[in-house]
Design goal:
single chain, 77 residues, alpha+beta, Structural Genomics Hypothetical 15.5 Kd Protein In mrcA-pckA Intergenic Region, Chain A, five-stranded mixed beta sheet, 7 strands, globular
Length: 77
């Protein structure tokens, strides 16, 4: 299984955008097709909402790829 880590810099990211930004698919449109096909799971449950809000602490799976979403470290100001 390929394990990826995505550092979230905002409150959430839409599922199709996450798939694109992690390189799982080539475009947001391709991500939407993957989600609509029922091949993507969020926290172990099939997710069919293409723009589902993914937050830190959640895990997304597609085939043998698992994406762990974590909060990006905050920088000192």
């Amino acid at each position: 299984m390929q394990a990826l880590v995505f550092h979230l810099t905002s409150e959430f990211i839409e599922l199709n955008a996450l798939l694109k930004l992690t390189g799982v698919c080539d475009s947001g449109g391709a991500g939407k097709i993957l989600v609509a096909s029922g091949r993507v799971s969020v926290d172990g449950k099939v997710e069919l909402r293409k723009t589902c809000k993914i937050r830190a602490g959640q895990a997304v799976s597609l085939g043998d790829v698992r994406i762990q979403v974590i909060a990006a470290p905050r920088t000192a100001e």
